[in-house]
Amino acid sequence: MNPQNTIAISPAELSLAWRKTDTTWTLGLFGTAIGAGVLFFPIRAGFGGLVPILIMLVLAYPIAFFCHRALARLCLSGSNPSGNITSTVEEHFGKTGGVVITFLYFFAICPLLWIYGVTITNTFMTFWENQLQLPALNRGLVALGLLLLMAFVIYFGKDLMVKVMSYLVWPFIASLVLISLSLIPYWNSAAIEQVDLGSLSLLGGDGILVTVWLGVSIMVFSFNFSPIVSSFVVSKREECEAELGREQTERKCAQIISRASMLMVAVVMFFAFSCLFTLSPQNMAEAKAQNIPVLSYLANHFSGMAGERSVFAAILEYAASLIALVAIFKSFFGHYLGTLEGLNGLIVKFAYHGDEASVPERRLNMISMVFIMGSTWLVAYVNPNILDLIEAMGAPIIASLLCLLPMYATRKVPALAAYRGRVDNVFVTAIGLLTILNIAYKLF
């Protein structure tokens, strides 16, 4: 080959060249985010009416992309290409920083298990009573039976569970898209007709700004793939950093996060709009009061339809609750592994002074399982409102890890100095603070 005819490819062009592994990670991030939390987003977004959900549509992609990119940049800032987020934070802030991260990871994931414990109990009970037309069961026994079943699967079939979980992601996403499309013939104009621009208020309990503010929390919760960001960044650093350099590796990570965010927002927002146009803001408020996911409410809605129903309506009456149960089981198993890892880490750090070798793994897992399942059963039995629990506990802790920690590190860590003073930093900080301030709103 004549050297004069060789076309030189710059590192910037090489970093943006799409690879097969980029597609794999795009789908992996997308699949991680699409879980049981998506089943509650239409309820929070929908019962505020059409105007708030349109504002949320505008905010959805920036929230998903800028927040996860900020966390990825933090993970990229460590000197060790194979170092995860814990080792990176320890490098920047010492052992105390590592303990803080372990706490945040545990308390970001454990409340999600509590939420799923309530959700799966309510979903099973509403299916039992409304679709199967069977007598009501004792709530405490139902919650205990479901959690014991999951504990049995976890304890004796962890490897099988992980494999099954990975296979369930795509059928669940396909089901959401199929349901969204199949609901189109049932769309109505109730959500549009109820828009009265003259009577809309910005503030107050039902004001647009308050509704959007509360919706930000459920978006942070539903559009969240932060648990996998550290593994994603380590993988791309090991693959690309030696070849492209750190700056271009960051561009590659941002490119993948952007595409995963677009996919996620398209699926979730289409599902939310399809639910809103099929039901009404009053129906969404009813679903919130009944403390059930939107698929369970749709099943009850179609079972109560008068007159002759289509084949889809008859199928959805049963399929919607079953799809919701599968989604919750999938999310529960995935978050259980993260919670177990976090709690084991805390026990080792505080009870065994970090000496992991001296701890019998089987005993450690059993202690953690008893605490996790016991606390989840208690919350499932008490039956707090799921959306309130998300807004008051789940989303604020996720926001601390996803938004505020990277922004604090950007101001303090020299390796992140190049990212200071950017407009998107203000946006990410605002989203984190608004989500955490939900706790104050719920209290007062």
Automatic annotation (TrEMBL):
GO terms for molecular function: L-serine transmembrane transporter activity; symporter activity; threonine efflux transmembrane transporter activity. It catalyses: L-serine(in) + H(+)(in) = L-serine(out) + H(+)(out). Its main location: membrane. It is found in: Cell inner membrane. InterPro entries: Amino_acid_transport_2 (IPR018227), Hydroxy_aa_transpt (IPR004694), Thr/Ser_transpt_TdcC (IPR023726). It is a multi-pass membrane protein. The keyword Transport applies. The chain crosses the membrane at residues 24-43, 49-72, 93-116, 136-156, 168-187, 207-235, 256-279, 311-329, 364-383, 389-410, 422-441. The keyword Transmembrane applies. It comes from the Bacteria. GO terms for cellular component: plasma membrane. Keywords: Amino-acid transport, Cell inner membrane, Cell membrane, Membrane, Symport, Transmembrane, Transmembrane helix, Transport. HAMAP family: Thr_Ser_transp_TdcC (MF_01583). This is Threonine/serine transporter TdcC.
